[in-house]
Amino acid sequence: MFSSVFSCVWPLAVAALFALAGCAEEQPAAKLQTVTDVAATQDAVVGDASGAADAEQEAIGTDATAGGCNVSADCPGEKDLCINGSCSPQTVCKSDKQCANLDLVCDPKAGVCVECLGAADCKEGKTCKAHKCLGAAPPCATSKECPTGLVCDKVAGACVECAVADDCSKGFSCVETVCSPQYCLPGSVQCADSQLLETCNAEGSSFDQTPCPKGEVCDGDACKPTVCTPGAKDCQGPAVVTCNAAGTAWVEPVSCPGEQLCSAGQCLDPVCEPGKTECQGGAVATCKPDALSWSHKVCETGQVCAAGSCVAKVCEAKAAYCKAGTPMQCDDTGSKASALPACTANQLCLGGKCVAAACKVGDTVCADSATLATCKADGSGYGQTACPGGSACTQGACKSLLCQPSQVVCQGTKRMQCDAAGTALAVLEDCATTGKSCASGACTAQAGFAVRGSFESLSDTSAGGYRLQQQGWLIDRSCGQNYFITGGFAP
């Protein structure tokens, strides 16, 4: 009886990895296992694990890429695996047909061939864990009871490859009690794109993604604020800097050559000395501290820019003019003038030049019968003035009208003729010398003519008392249209 029970329990405890069927009571008594038997059992367990590893190695290929790796994310190929410090490509697939010749199946999520996706992909008696087909694990209460290379999963009470991450070698994580190659280093971070930060999960099997806050982008291994437009250029002192591709920093400073200065991301030659002033377009220009441009100040009304400052305006820039009869020349700014050679006695200053005088200052002439012309103060010519109403210009003066121009009239016994201007009468003849009287401008024999001895006042609406004169009256003086007369014909 003891032999029967022992032969049933011990093989299960030691060789459960082979998935043996249970012992029947009718089974012959088994002999006590020796150390050699236990070693053989452990070899079987290791061999089983090695077989799974061989199958997966066949799936991923045997040509490791040059260079080392710590995790699969270090490898150049998207589907590469990092195994024992070397990158190995996996067989890429989209369907099981692409994996059939390797006796594998396609993992559609990862896009590579694996040993299994579930228990149905494994042989009878084996289960699928972490894409590996594993036999039944030997039971245990402590890792001392497990074969070499295995530990006891005390929760499940079975020998497994790993119970915690530390049970696996570097570069491997414990996934479903199986040590699987890590895709990434747990806790490591990287950018999935410009807006997503990835953090490797605790198992190293994948990245967890976190969106960057508003106004930030993912750059390198962190979300960073944007400070510039990617590719834009600016200045840092005398150097040109370029905004990086993420827009998070100014990089690649390049110093400007020689004496050139940086402005708006360009190397330019200096245009002025900082603080220097000069006149530009009538305004005061001051060189800016960057030595690459000017600031401008417009002078106030009545001022001009001269020698880099606003000063009083004294003349029109570059103009020649006369001042107190002296020719003057204004400078290019309008801030000062210089006297030119003085004019001679027979010259006058006109438009800033000495020219021959056209007339004597103050002289008057008649431009016509109604206009008086007076020589200008500078002697350059005549200025004209119209004579007042009731007057005419004659002999260089405006005089009151006395008669109709060239008309012949009588004043007493004298025949008088009005001059061409109508301002004076000249005696043609005295009719009395021939015993005649004067009437209507002619000497006429008239009876009863006598000169009155006293003044009388008569009215005449004709300008200058012409009718009275034509009638032979001698006008003594006038008051409005009333005239004091003497002479004439006796009544």
Report a brief summary of the structure.
Helix content is 9%, strand content 37%. With 491 residues, it is mainly beta.
What does this structure look like?
The chain is mainly beta and 491 residues long. The protein folds into 7 domains: 2-183, no CATH class; 190-225, no CATH class; 233-268, no CATH class; 277-312, no CATH class; 320-356, no CATH class; 364-398, no CATH class; 403-487, no CATH class. It contains 3 helices and 44 strands. Strands 1-3-2 form a 3-stranded antiparallel beta sheet, with no helix packed on it. Strands 12-13-14 form a 3-stranded antiparallel beta sheet, with no helix packed on it. Strands 17-18-19 form a 3-stranded antiparallel beta sheet, with no helix packed on it. The longest helix is centred in the N-terminal third of the chain and has 26 residues, at 35-60. The protein is rod-shaped, with a radius of gyration of 66 Å.
Helicity, as a percent range: under 10%
Count of distinct strands:
44
Low-pLDDT segments? 1-66, 447-456
Please identify the oligomeric state: single chain
User: How many alpha or pi helices?
Assistant: 3
Structural class: mainly beta
Rg result: 66 Å
Strand content: 35-45%
Could you give a short account of the major beta sheet? 3 strands, antiparallel
Mean pLDDT: 78
Q: So what's the overall shape?
A: rod-shaped
Roughly how many Å apart are the termini?
A: 204 Å
Number of domains: 7
List the helices and strands and how they pair.
Layout: H1 2-15, H2 35-60, E1 65-68, E2 81-83, E3 86-88, E4 105-107, E5 112-114, E6 127-129, E7 132-134, E8 151-153, E9 158-160, E10 172-175, E11 178-181, E12 189-191, E13 196-200, E14 207-211, E15 216-219, E16 222-225, E17 233-236, E18 239-243, E19 250-255, E20 261-263, E21 266-268, E22 277-280, E23 283-287, E24 294-298, E25 303-306, E26 309-312, E27 320-323, E28 326-330, E29 337-339, E30 347-350, E31 353-356, E32 364-368, E33 371-375, E34 382-386, E35 391-394, E36 397-400, E37 408-411, E38 414-418, E39 425-430, E40 437-439, E41 442-444, E42 456-459, H3 466-470, E43 473-479, E44 482-487
Antiparallel strand pairs: 1-3, 2-3, 4-5, 6-7, 8-9, 10-11, 12-13, 13-14, 15-16, 17-18, 18-19, 20-21, 22-23, 23-24, 25-26, 27-28, 28-29, 30-31, 32-33, 33-34, 35-36, 37-38, 38-39, 40-41, 42-44, 43-44
